[in-house]
Write a structure and sequence with these properties.
The structure holds two protein chains of two kinds. By secondary structure, chain A is an alpha/beta fold. Chain A folds into two domains: 73 residues, Urease, subunit C, domain 1; 287 residues, Metal-dependent hydrolases (TIM Barrel, Alpha-Beta Barrel). Chain A is 26% helix and 21% strand. Chain A has eleven helices and 17 strands. In chain A, the strands form three sheets. In chain A, strands 1, 2, 3, 4, 5, 15, 16 and 17 form an eight-stranded mixed beta sheet that branches. By secondary structure, chain B is α/β, with parallel strands linked by helices. Chain B has two domains: 91 residues, Urease, subunit C, domain 1; 287 residues, Metal-dependent hydrolases (TIM Barrel, Alpha-Beta Barrel). Classes of the chains: A alpha/beta, B alpha/beta. At the A-B interface, helix 8 of A face helix 3 and helix 10 of B.
């Protein structure tokens, strides 16, 4: 009997790493923030095969017999954070040959070995929308990634078929960042006219496709730009729109209504001035939280209260890091400062999880602790909105990919000599914040 | 009160006389304030539970436990959970750098020459700058501001309070230090220096020239003395230790250069930035040089690539005198808020009161203004803050800001 147990134990230790996903894991005793429901004191989280098996009160959960038990009493567990706007991985987009680049894919320019991925995991980020910069009206296709340990970008994608699936959003920008010398637009009205002309072209292309009705003789020639824009017109690819000033925000709403595309307002520094208009249009907002206003003309009226004002108006609110504008390691600081300025705790926590997942069409996979969803979660030392709290572990699809108690991981949390060796803000050359 | 109501009321003789009494009485009344806190961090001894700070004529009259103090009926009472001294940002450029970030409001760096010690901060400070108001509302009552990093010698710095309509209203010290920078950032703004070593050589040459100038100025015969030279005058003041050199040095190489300069010319220096200070704790300690550390959340790029959230804790542990700064930002955020920077240091190994000291009493000592500000003690300026919770918590608020005995902000932020 004893001998058998020993064999089992040794075998268990040997296979612990590789079988982490097959064997159920039970996390017992933490305060759980499922986001989809009320917080659970003394909760239990069960995961298996990279998915969540069960979430709930200790009394209500029957743990599988073969499960690995872990006592996390005193800790807090919440879903992995979803960053709706990030520039990690040294991402790039369209170049200076044009200002409209619907064919350019961010996924073709991401270095998955970049330190910035480790930094983001240290900050609890498990899903990110990696975007090209805001220096162009349309700088290209963004990419939704899961922060798995990957060897190539394909290992991180949400989509299964990078050639045929919709793997991200469409980055657009208006306001001053995208203005400039030809081929850029010189004025705001010209910006809108150029964008409208492009969408009208896409509508025409769509008409031809429909008319051809699959007949290869009548099909228009393949056009990478038009194909991506048709996904936008079909509502499959969400426009992720950099915009700050209230009038620029109204332009975004006007264009989205004219062409019927789905859009997320990104940054929205002056969204508080047009909160009711945004609510009426049913458009969600992903907000940038910056310590002080200014630094650029469009951000002089930036306020901490924007999240609270939008919440009150009934707008779906997220925050984002815009990494390297703010640091992924401090992502939870954004919703916390929003709470300081009047946002509810519940909506603030939702803003970096489930609300953010909705803005990327990923809410069926991530954003909350619910049975059947991906086992992406973080273990924190305390209240997620406290400055003193540290993210202790980040789990992605059932695997622990950041552990603060491991010195090798910890350095990505605090920094130090030769920790961050890559310039993470290459996109600034294209116009910056963003 | 709207002016219309004022006219109506003033039309009535009785009201008019009442109004006059009111107007005269108000300032006297507001000069006496009793600030009560569940915990009062005086930064001069242990915190006081249920403490009171009595304020009269812009100064701190008394500090002590509520049980031992009588509060006169003519004192306005303000109370909240936590009371601290007004915060001191030990190095910033706000007031010279404005929030629009356009050419017309950026006076922190003159790029016509890499050595311009003669530039005075008082000639470029905008007391009404929005960023000054912004940091004031978050409890910053004193700032060491002026010419920024980016030139070998960019100019002078000064110390001001964050209230006042003009630089004169705000002034504590018109010339506090002279700002030096080492490292490759200087090369981006000027044709020369193009290397670290050339930068040091240029500074040494300028200081040698100033030594010579100072010597000639000592000549007993007035006609043998050289003509006045603004640049040389200021450098001579550094050589005579009247003014410290504030040397921005982030990498270990640059920190060592700064210590070497201090040694060679026997000058007083303050190390600024010091992102790699954790590599040279013994050397900095031995040199007895204070440090004004980079903002805790400084971005890990360029010269501050190797910055760590834990450097503050390491300096404390090594017994090195240091303060925190909000620093210079070229983009967004256009200024940092020093309270937040201390908070992140406190969350990364620095004890609560030590973190608070880096933005109050330690900063005051390094800046040489601790007789006036930095702690809640009898006779000091009545710069006092009231918080509704732990000052470092993201979700706490600065609810009242008092500068020189006047409430300058009473909205929880």
């Amino acid at each position: 009997m004893k001998f058998n147990f020993l064999i089992l134990l040794v075998a268990g230790l040997l296979f612990q790493q590789s079988s982490a996903q097959e064997q159920p894991h039970v996390f017992r005793g933490a305060k759980l923030y499922p986001i989809s429901g009320e917080p659970i004191e003394n909760g239990v989280l069960v995961i298996q095969n990279g998915k969540i098996l069960a979430v709930g009160l200790a009394d209500n959960i029957q743990a599988p017999a073969d499960a690995t038990e872990r006592d996390v009493t005193g800790k807090v567990i919440m879903p992995g954070l979803v960053d709706t706007h990030s520039h990690i991985g040294g991402v790039q987009g369209g170049d200076r040959s044009a200002t409209l680049h619907p064919d350019v894919r961010a996924m073709d320019a991401i270095n998955v070995r970049s330190d910035s991925f480790k930094r983001a995991r240290a900050g609890g980020v498990t899903t990110a929308n990696i975007m090209p910069g805001s220096g162009h009206l349309m700088s290209g296709q963004t990419v939704y990634v899961k922060l798995r340990k990957g060897n190539k970008i394909e290992d991180l994608l949400y989509c299964k078929d990078s050639l045929n699936d919709v793997c991200g959003g469409m980055k657009m920008a208006n306001g001053t960042n995208s203005l400039g010398e030809k081929p850029r637009s010189g004025t705001r009205a010209k910006s809108a006219a150029m964008v409208r002309a492009l969408y009208i072209k896409a509508q025409e292309y769509q008409k031809k496709l429909k008319a051809a009705n699959g007949d290869p003789e009548k099909m228009p020639e393949r056009d990478l730009q038009m194909e991506a824009l048709m996904q936008v017109l079909d509502g499959k690819r969400i426009v992720q729109h950099h915009t700050h000033r209230h009038d620029d925000i109204m332009t975004v709403i006007r264009l989205s209504q004219e062409f019927g595309f789905r859009v997320v307002i990104q940054h929205g520094s002056e969204a508080w001035k047009v909160a009711d208009e945004i609510a009426k249009a049913g458009i969600p907002c992903s907000i940038i939280m910056i310590d002080s206003p200014g630094g650029k003309l469009e951000a002089v009226d930036l306020r901490y209260e924007t999240g609270a004002i939008l919440e009150k108006a009934g707008v779906d609110v997220a925050f984002h890091t815009d990494d390297g504008i703010t640091d992924s390691r401090l992502f939870l600081r954004s919703p916390a400062l929003a709470v300081r300025a009047g946002m509810s705790r519940g909506k603030a926590l939702e803003s970096v999880t489930l609300a953010a997942a909705r803005m990327l069409d990923l809410a069926d996979r991530v954003g909350s602790l619910e049975k059947g969803k991906d086992a992406d979660f973080i273990i924190l030392s305390g209240d997620p909105l406290s400055v003193y709290t540290h993210i202790e572990e980040t789990w992605v699809e059932g695997l622990k990919l950041f552990d603060r108690s491991n010195p090798e991981d910890r350095k990505y949390s605090v920094g130090g000599y030769e920790v961050f060796r890559q310039n993470v803000v290459a996109y600034e050359a294209e116009g910056g914040m963003e | 009160m709207s002016s219309k109501n004022f006219d109506k009321m003033a039309g009535n003789a009785t009201m008019r006389s009442l109004l006059i009494v009111f107007i005269i009485a108000t300032p006297i009344w507001s000069q006496k304030i009793a600030v009560k806190g569940e915990t009062v961090y005086t930064m001069a001894g242990d915190p006081i539970q249920n403490g009171v700070v009595l304020i009269k004529n812009g100064k701190i009259e008394r500090v002590g436990p509520a049980s031992s103090l009588n509060i006169g009926s003519d004192y306005k009472i303000l109370s909240n959970k936590i009371v601290t001294p007004g915060l001191i940002d030990a190095h910033t450029v706000v007031g010279l750098a404005g929030y629009y970030n356009q050419k017309h409001d950026q006076d922190q760096l003159e790029k016509s020459d890499p050595i311009q010690a003669e530039l005075r901060a008082i000639d470029a400070f905008n007391a009404r700058e929005k960023l000054v108001e912004w940091v004031r509302n978050f409890g910053v009552t004193t700032i060491h501001t002026g010419h920024g990093p980016g030139a070998l010698i960019s100019g002078q710095t000064m110390i001001v309070k964050t209230n006042g309509q003009t630089v004169n209203d705000a002034l504590i010290k018109p010339t506090a230090m002279v700002a030096f920078s080492l490292g490759p950032n200087v090369g981006r703004n000027f044709k020369s220096p193009g290397t670290r070593a050339k930068g040091v050589a240029m500074i040494r040459t300028a200081l040698l020239k100033a030594q010579n100038y100072a010597k000639k100025m000592q000549n007993k015969k007035e006609d043998k003395r050289p003509d006045r030279d603004l640049k040389m005058e200021v450098l001579a003041q550094i050589l005579s230790k009247e003014l410290p050199a504030l040397i921005t040095a982030q990498k270990a190489t640059e920190i060592m250069s700064a210590l070497r300069l201090a040694n060679e010319f026997d000058i007083k220096i303050v190390l600024d930035g010091a992102a790699e200070a954790y590599l040279l704790l013994d050397e900095i300690k031995a040199a007895k040089v204070p440090v004004i550390l980079h903002p805790t959340m400084v971005r890990n790029r360029g010269e501050t690539q190797n910055a760590s959230y834990e450097t503050a804790a390491k300096l404390q542990q090594a017994g090195i005198k240091f303060a925190l700064q909000s620093g210079y930002e070229s983009y967004v955020p256009k200024t940092r808020v020093i309270l937040y920077e201390a908070a992140i240091a406190a969350a990364n190994g620095l004890a609560f009161e030590d973190a608070l000291a880096t933005i109050t009493i330690n900063a005051a000592q390094i800046l040489g203004i601790d007789k006036r500000v930095g702690s809640l003690e009898k006779g000091k300026d009545a710069d006092v803050l009231l918080f509704d919770g732990d000052p470092f918590e993201y979700t706490s608020h600065v609810c009242t800001v008092i500068i020189d005995g006047k409430v300058v902000s009473d909205e929880c932020r």
